[in-house]
Specification:
Elements lengths: L1 E7 L3 H12 L4 E4 L6 H5 L15 E2 L2 E2 L11 H14 L4 E2 L4 E7 L2 E6 L2 E10 L6 E2 L13 E4 L13 E5 L3 H12 L4 E4 L4 E2 L3 E2 L2 E2 H7 L13 H4 L5 E2 L11 H6 L3 E3 L2 E5 L2 E4 L3 H25 L22 E3 L3 E6 L3 E2 L18 E2 L2 E2 L4 E3 L13 H21 L20 E2 L1
Parallel strand pairs: 1-2, 1-8, 2-5, 4-26, 8-25, 10-21, 11-12, 11-21, 12-17, 13-16
Antiparallel strand pairs: 3-4, 6-7, 7-8, 9-22, 14-15, 18-19, 19-20, 23-24
Length: 428
């Protein structure tokens, strides 16, 4: 089977690319190992809501038009939103089709799947950045009496044994799960490494409104001094809640969560922690206040001085946080330590020593190969649903130029025709 472009992955990034390819009348197919929005359906916990307000769920030609723009979508609502988008744009998605290899071919790329082989002149990798759990090697040293659970496999506290829980990681996922599990009656110890504290609301508005309106989320990859560092910044400590409640370390200690430093190792039935907790908390407070300073400066420049600037109490840390924990009091370790992409099926010399795609703003280190949906791909907002459209627009232009430059006398037969996308924006 042949087409011009193969998009791998039918999440929000892959669908956004499909919309832009169709608008350019570029024949393509979207290959998805499961269903549309598969990871949202299979790798999220029950109570999770989007960390961004409803108004920020914007995809090309598709945006929120409901009566609760400041609310936060549940997972069923998010899945319905993405499924509705796929239908609205008539995305040519082949579901239940797992890609097993991508190789160079004379006319572009050969893509093998468990449902047949494809040839295309270009490939877009939109399979996401969260495929494989990123856990330290010493995780294998956990005692048999302690269950090891990855955040993508967690659904609700009821699946955990009664007793103590060690949550490892204090970014968005870690703080949300620590709060939920502590409120279930299971005592939680939270191992805190690098993190970024952030208020849910600031000066009367959601923090995402400020970051969006002030242009902070529009910062481009070519404007950053240390792009590698920017792409590894932890997710903001935010939860999607309609009360405007901030979930930071102070909020967690207020309900009884015990804070310790970064998990440094496991030895003789004990968890060992670094002594850097106070420094990590102080650095996180500093980063938050720098962002708030930038927002204040922008607001003043725009004449938006009311309501006035706010500052928040420093993170409270015990004078002598524990440096070890006897695991006999722990029944579960929940790893909220992040994920990494899985490119084991990519038979191309485009990976660095850490298994990451070498790319410049989504243009991979191979002709006709593009990547989408990674943190800070082209802008600070790249990993958000709201960021996929702008990245896909720019990369579809680069892709179209590549197809034009490599066009052959005999065109590749079309397998699908693009719909007319000149109509007004579709709303959900």
């Amino acid at each position: 089977m042949r087409t011009d472009v193969i998009v791998i992955g039918a999440g929000h990034a892959g669908l956004a690319m499909s919309r832009h390819l169709a608008a350019r009348s570029i024949d393509h197919v979207v290959l998805e190992r499961g269903e549309v929005a598969n990871s949202w359906k299979t790798e999220r916990w029950d109570s999770l809501r989007l960390l961004t307000p409803n108004w920020q769920s914007r995809l090309p030609g598709y945006e929120y038009r409901g009566d609760d723009p400041e609310g936060f979508r549940t997972m069923p609502e998010t899945i319905a939103f993405l499924e509705g988008y796929a239908r609205a744009i008539a995305a040519p998605v082949r579901t239940r089709t797992t890609v097993t290899s991508v190789r160079r071919a004379e006319d572009g790329y050969a893509v093998s799947t468990d449902r047949g082989a494809w040839r295309a002149r270009a490939v877009v990798l939109a399979s996401g950045a969260c495929n494989l759990p990123s856990v330290p090697p010493f995780a294998a040293a956990l005692p048999d009496s302690v269950a090891s659970v990855y955040s993508k496999d967690y659904r609700n506290p009821a699946q955990l044994a009664e007793g103590g829980v060690l949550v490892v990681g204090a970014s968005a996922t870690g703080v949300q799960l620590a709060e939920e599990i502590q409120r279930s009656g299971r005592p939680v110890t939270l191992a805190v490494g690098e993190h970024i504290r952030m208020p849910r609301r600031y000066r009367g508005r959601d923090i995402q409104w400020w970051m969006d309106t002030a242009g902070i989320l529009e910062l481009r990859h070519d404007e950053v001094d240390d792009l590698g560092r920017a792409r590894n910044v932890p997710s903001l400590q935010l939860t999607g809640n309609t009360e405007g409640r901030t979930t930071d370390l102070n909020a967690l200690t207020a309900i009884g969560v015990r804070l310790v430093g970064r998990l440094a190792g496991l030895r003789e039935g004990k968890a060992l922690f670094s002594g850097s907790l106070a420094n990590q908390a102080a650095l996180s407070d500093l980063k938050m206040n720098r962002l708030l300073d930038a927002i204040d400066a922008w607001a003043s420049a725009q004449g938006l001085d009311a309501p006035p600037r706010e500052r928040f109490a420093p993170t409270r840390i015990e004078a002598l946080p524990a440096l070890s924990l006897d695991l006999r009091g722990i029944r579960t370790v929940l790893w909220a330590t992040g994920y990494r992409p899985d490119y084991s099926w990519l038979e191309l010399p485009v990976l660095d020593r850490k298994g990451r795609i070498r790319h410049a703003g989504g243009v991979a280190d191979a002709p006709g190969l593009y990547v989408l949906g990674l943190p800070f791909l082209r802008r600070r907002k790249s990993a958000l649903i709201d960021g996929a459209g702008d990245d896909a627009r720019a990369l579809s232009a680069r892709l179209a130029a590549h197809l034009d430059a490599t066009a052959k006398a005999a065109p590749i037969p079309r397998i699908a025709r693009a719909a007319d996308f000149a109509s007004p924006a579709i709303s959900f």
